[in-house]
Write a structure and sequence with these properties.
- The protein is of the alpha/beta class.
- The chain is built from 10 helices and 12 strands.
- A hairpin with a 2-residue loop joins strand 5 and strand 6.
- The structure holds 2'-monophosphoadenosine-5'-diphosphate (ATR).
- The site of 2'-monophosphoadenosine-5'-diphosphate (ATR) has 14 residues, from helix 5.
Length: 284
């Protein structure tokens, strides 16, 4: 129960009403008996600066940041961790004695989700579809472990820019436009395909960023979209005998990493996963 001594965390974004994070984190606080509460906070773009000041003034322990503030929040923070700065996006803020520090847990969350699914990206060729914020977060973590990284994006210049930013950070990466020819060429020797775009996400459920005929059975296909749980891309993957990995693992793991930053406690990932699944499957 919320009381006078309760520590407050939350998520700022717009829209925010469909976020699963409040349920996921509050289930974890309750399970561990921590006197914390996680609240959804709808913040308009024009109000972001004041919202960040407010979070400090209210002495929030921290907060998650989601669309559309992940990039614009950087300039309002006291400190930004170096990888988050290279990514150019923050999804987690921690209040350390009145100073707000920004981190990005999406990339590590994705890496942990793959490992949890029994997939080791070490020494593998990875093909990432998309070059937006989520792609930047994931590629900056995976580039350090995989042997080869290709990025294909609808807007070619963004894929080329991301590959060039990765190279400046000391990694090897290749960027190009998202065309059937490029997909065909890259997929032949790809081990892990990752969709970071919103193609296939509710309500756009009848679309896939990659046609079925280009997939093959030796692939792991990881879709960061979790609504629906089985996207059209993952259905294709299952049909061709590839290994599908859904987006729930990344959602839970990025949340679990933030949870530990705020509380110092190891997050109960199974409890968080159950809260997410209950929400997605309408079991609550
Ligand atoms: P996020 O933070 O979720 O990554 P984002 O930064 O807006 O969101 O990035 C969205 C990504 O999905 C981009 O790579 C975008 O491609 P563009 O750079 O060409 O805009 C991609 N995307 C969105 N809708 C798409 C579509 N219908 N087909 C292909 N790619 C799409």
């Amino acid at each position: 129960m919320v009381g006078g001594a309760t520590t407050v965390v939350g998520v700022i974004g717009n829209p925010i009403e469909h976020s699963l994070s409040p349920r996921m984190h509050n289930a974890a606080f309750e399970y561990l008996g921590l006197d914390y509460v996680y609240i959804p906070l709808r913040v308009l773009e024009k109000d972001l600066k004041n919202a960040v000041r407010g979070a400090k003034a209210f002495n929030f322990r921290g907060f998650n940041v989601t669309i559309p503030h992940k990039v614009s929040i950087l300039r309002f923070l006291d400190k930004v961790e170096s990888t988050a700065r290279k990514i150019g996006a923050v999804n987690t803020v921690v209040n350390e004695d009145g100073k707000l520090s920004g981190y990005n847990t999406d990339g590590l969350g994705a890496l942990e989700a793959l490992r949890e699914a029994g997939v080791d990206p070490e020494g593998k060729k990875i093909l990432v579809i998309g070059a937006g914020g989520a792609s930047r977060a994931i590629t900056f973590y995976l580039a350090g472990v995989c042997s080869e990284l290709a990025i294909l994006n609808r807007t070619r210049s963004k894929a080329v820019k991301l590959a060039s930013d990765l190279k400046s950070a000391g990694f090897k990466a290749y960027g190009n436009g998202l065309t059937v020819e490029a997909l065909e060429r890259e997929l032949v020797d790809t081990d892990i395909l990752i969709n970071t775009t919103s193609v296939g996400m509710h309500p756009d459920v009848d679309r896939s960023p990659v046609p079925e005929e280009l997939l093959h059975r030796d692939l792991v296909v990881f879709d960061i979209v979790y609504n629906p749980l089985e996207t059209m891309l993952l259905r294709y993957a299952r049909k061709v005998g590839a290994k599908p990995v859904d987006g729930v693992g990344m959602l839970v793991n990025q949340g679990a990493i933030s949870f530990k930053m705020w509380t110092g406690c190891e997050a109960p990932r199974d409890v968080m996963r159950k809260a997410v699944m209950d929400s997605l499957l309408g079991r609550d």
